[in-house]
Amino acid sequence: MNILTILGSPRKNGNTAGVLEMVEKELSDRHQVERLAICSMKVNGCLGCGACQKVADQPGCVQKDDAVAIFERMMAADAVIYSSPLYCWDFSAQMKALIDRHFCLVTGYGTANHRSLIADKPTALLVTCGGPVKGNADVIQTVFSRVCQYGKARAVNKTVIPFCTTPDALGEDARAAARKLAGDINGALRQ
Ligand SMILES: Cc1cc2nc3c(=O)[nH]c(=O)nc-3n(C[C@H](O)[C@H](O)[C@H](O)COP(=O)(O)O)c2cc1C
Q: Cβ < 6 Å from ligand 1: which residues?
């Protein structure tokens, strides 16, 4: 199966990339894994124009940047892993722009006609941060859950790696968490 991973860190070889690579290695035995690094792509913030809400069967965004290409890869993938460093208790700005742009994947939110172009897709969240989980990396997990509900996607794992310093200091805890994340994606794909 095809798994898409999205790196939301501006540091291509940082902590988030390091743990994401562990996850990808766990999955690559059985699956095709493709990584997109948002920082090498152009993803503007949502304009809030609402034009996309008139288009239900494709991402109807008016902006001609890389977001729609990312969404097309997401739609084609069997599972999507979102990864981000924790920035001020939330996603990096680069990942937040992509999250906001999910608006164009969803129509009829809050009505009986709620539709999403990523409905039922297994998703996972991977976060690295310098501090603890409690009272620090809780908001980002709530946001992710809500975005998945909004997109009718299936959040199968939310992983936070706390107390990160440098990528070479990532240890057995990170490796075990990466294994668990990969296992949860595998479990969802077997269903
Ligand atoms: C702008 C900025 C904001 C940050 N905010 C937080 C934060 O709110 N909580 C935290 O624990 N760590 C915070 N950090 C630390 C990063 O989350 C942490 O170093 C992370 O592992 C960096 O990932 P990377 O190496 O992939 O860039 C922040 C770092 C930066 C640069």
A: 9, 11, 14-17, 85-89, 128-131, 136, 164
Confidence bin at 191 (pLDDT 50/70/90) = confident
The CATH number given to 2-190 is 3.40.50.360
Q: What's the whole-model pTM score?
A: 0.98
Strands (E), the chain: 2-7, 32-37, 79-85, 106-107, 115-116, 122-128, 154-161
Residue 186 clears pLDDT 90, i.e. is over it: yes
Domain range list for the chain:
2-190
Select from 11, 84, 86 the residue to mutate for testing ligand 1; criterion: most ligand atoms less than 8 Å from CB. 86
